[in-house]
Inverse folding.
């Protein structure tokens, strides 16, 4: 097609469109008044509808807020009761352990006191009394001998007897003193024992006092929750958010552990279930490895439930103690078995890897290259250890999982509230914007700017200044509209609301 | 996407799918099937050392459940007797490794003892390859032709037969140039074009590969 023909076609098409647009503008210009009225009515209806919708959303948000508050208080009450219960259990244990031995302690202290008292009384310094006949002998010894050798011999004998008795008395006194000192020395360990007993008692009492203070604080928080105080709700909400993020972090770590566990057993699983069979688009070996890990996690959950560490399944917690203990042993047994299987599979993985390396080396003409590593046993042992330990480590996933599930409810509630509030605000803003339909009227006038401009020129020519001024005054809110596009003022005030 | 995450998502999707469909329907073919034709005619036997290395490289790349066959191209190649070694590897990786070692030994022995053939029946070999792979019905069917692609049929052998190669990848490897190609390169180009036309007319995909490093990519892509 020649260029000039193409240009001509383009011009014709443009001209046709221009004529259509001009015609439409004229039609719209003549329909301006009823169109403005229709726009105003529609804007009013839209405004009302948006306001009603915003109010409904706010009501929904309020209901949700109330519901969240109730849920938060209920879970907080539950947690507080649990904590207080645990604390009382601890106090009970402490009282049983420490104060249960109080009678024995009392008896022991009494015995120690009695022993000390006896030792003390026996350690009193009582000088030995001289024998009664000493004075008689002394009187006899004072009789003058007058040189009589018989009397002198008798007196000498008496003197010797006296000396002997003195020595005996001195020895007896020394023995008594030694015995007394020994008894006094015996008091010291008794006193030390007494001090130790008193110290232990004091420690127990301090411990109990500290626990009672903790209980007092928890009771205070519990009372706040029961009274549904705003401060308690705020605190619960804040701690719930913290718990959510912390538990999510721990769960992410657990997922990492599960991924490592998966890689440890997925490869050797192909020896058991085949290396090329698929379930859908996934290798059967991978699915089997995943199932084993999921079973381990499930067993961990049941074990934690049976131990009453978590409370995700109330049915398990409500089981009779005997049944619960049986369940503990059964789940632990299954876990132990699975951990052993994983250790075996980890070993198998290393064997397979070595076999594959050897085959590949052989096929590449590098026979023997794969067998040079003498430290393979270290990685094998490490893999086996990880294979055995990881299932038990995954047991503890139950704790952050419970926290995550519980805090997720609060977090979702808060998010939903925020969303509702934001939506309501958006609806209100939109309602405010469309209230008088000014924007839609401006848009309508923009479509007919040509006829409006002509209209203005004609009115100006015939001196209809007054009308134009009034129009400009009423349409002051349209000041931002460029002059050429501003037509006759919209009769907003004249229209029915 | 990481295999662990992929497995979790796939397992979840699979569970839903299994519940939805009840696990009915015939399972889709899985694994790879590779049939390698080795030209043993005339001077091309000198290239068989390369072929042995290539076969070992392919063996190293194959997985449990894959099928692999190596056949010679001689006077009449449309025969099971020309299959040097064939194996569908066991599902268990350890057994598959043992099979690969046995396969390698068989090929090594063949390469050492092979005698040059008088004629070159490539079409017969391709027909045999198609029959073998159709029988195995793997997910991916690949025919590798290790030859200069110069067909030389014994008198009386009819090979003007349309090939049925739908779903097949046919890869010509190590297509060496003959003395006559050097004199007139159009012969070489015509030879390649003829084979491409025959394969594509049969519904197959045709490729020429003289750089073996690229073969790895082809094998990986065929998984």
């Amino acid at each position: 097609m020649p260029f000039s023909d193409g240009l001509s076609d383009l011009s014709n098409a443009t001209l046709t469109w221009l004529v259509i647009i001009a015609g439409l503008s004229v039609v719209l210009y003549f329909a301006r008044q009823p169109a403005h009225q229709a726009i105003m009515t529609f804007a009013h209806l839209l405004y009302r509808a948006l306001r009603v919708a915003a109010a409904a959303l706010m009501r929904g948000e309020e209901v949700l807020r109330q519901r969240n508050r109730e849920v938060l208080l209920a879970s907080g009450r539950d947690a507080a009761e649990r904590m207080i219960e645990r604390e009382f259990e601890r106090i009970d244990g402490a009282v049983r352990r420490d104060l249960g031995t109080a009678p024995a302690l009392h008896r022991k202290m009494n015995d120690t006191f009695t022993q000390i008292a006896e030792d003390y009384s026996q350690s009193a310094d009582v000088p030995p009394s001289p024998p009664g006949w000493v004075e008689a002998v002394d009187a006899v010894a004072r009789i003058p001998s007058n040189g009589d050798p018989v009397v002198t011999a008798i007196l000498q004998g008496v003197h010797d007897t006296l000396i002997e008795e003195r020595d005996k008395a001195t020895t007896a006194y020394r023995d008594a003193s030694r015995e007394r000192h020994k008894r006094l020395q015996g008091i010291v360990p008794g006193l030390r024992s007494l001090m130790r007993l008193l110290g232990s008692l004091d420690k127990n009492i301090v411990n109990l006092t500290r626990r009672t203070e903790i209980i007092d604080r928890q009771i205070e928080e519990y009372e706040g929750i029961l009274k549904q105080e705003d401060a308690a709700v705020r605190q619960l909400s804040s701690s719930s958010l913290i718990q959510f993020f912390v538990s999510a972090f721990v769960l992410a770590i657990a997922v990492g552990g599960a991924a490592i566990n998966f890689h440890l057993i997925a490869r050797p699983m192909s020896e058991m279930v085949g290396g090329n069979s698929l379930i859908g688009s996934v290798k059967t070996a991978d699915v089997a490895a995943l199932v084993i890990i999921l079973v381990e996690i499930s067993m961990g959950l049941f074990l934690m439930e049976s131990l009453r560490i978590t409370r995700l399944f109330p049915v398990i917690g409500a089981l009779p103690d005997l049944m619960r203990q049986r369940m503990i042993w059964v789940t632990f047994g299954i876990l132990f078995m699975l951990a052993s299987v994983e250790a075996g599979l980890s070993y198998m993985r290393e064997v397979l890897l070595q076999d594959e390396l050897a085959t590949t080396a052989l096929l590449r003409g590098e026979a023997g290259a794969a067998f040079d590593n003498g430290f393979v046993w270290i990685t094998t042992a490490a893999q086996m250890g990880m294979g055995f330990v990881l299932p038990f480590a995954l047991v503890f996933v139950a704790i952050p999982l419970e926290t995550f599930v519980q805090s997720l409810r609060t977090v979702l509630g808060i998010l939903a509230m925020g969303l509702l509030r934001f939506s309501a605000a958006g609806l209100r803003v939109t309602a405010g914007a469309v209230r008088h339909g000014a924007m839609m009227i401006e848009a309508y006038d923009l479509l007919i700017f040509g006829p409006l401009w002509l209209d203005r020129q004609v009115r100006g020519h015939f001196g209809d200044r007054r009308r134009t001024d009034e129009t400009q005054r009423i349409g002051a809110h349209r000041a931002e509209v460029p002059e050429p596009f501003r037509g006759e003022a919209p009769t907003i005030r004249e229209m029915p609301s | 996407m990481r295999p662990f995450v992929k497995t979790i998502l796939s397992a979840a999707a699979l569970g839903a799918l299994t519940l939805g469909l009840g696990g009915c329907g015939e399972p889709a073919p899985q694994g790879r099937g590779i049939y390698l034709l080795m030209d043993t005619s005339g001077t091309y036997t000198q290239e068989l050392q390369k072929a042995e290395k290539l076969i070992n490289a392919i063996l190293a790349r194959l997985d449990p459940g894959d099928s692999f066959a190596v056949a010679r191209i001689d006077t009449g190649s449309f025969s099971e007797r020309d299959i040097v070694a064939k194996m569908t590897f066991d599902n268990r990786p350890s057994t598959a490794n043992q099979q690969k070692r046995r396969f390698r030994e068989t090929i090594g022995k063949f390469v050492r003892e092979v005698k040059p053939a008088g004629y070159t029946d490539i079409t017969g070999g391709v027909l045999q390859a198609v029959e073998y792979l159709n029988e195995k019905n793997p997910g991916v069917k690949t025919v590798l032709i290790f030859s200069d692609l110069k067909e030389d049929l014994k008198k009386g052998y009819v090979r003007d037969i349309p090939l049925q190669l739908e779903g097949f990848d046919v890869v010509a490897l190590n297509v060496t140039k003959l003395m006559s190609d050097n004199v007139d390169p159009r012969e070489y180009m015509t030879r390649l074009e003829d084979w491409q036309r025959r394969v594509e007319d049969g519904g197959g995909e045709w490729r020429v590969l003289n750089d073996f490093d690229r073969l790895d990519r082809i094998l990986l892509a065929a998984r």
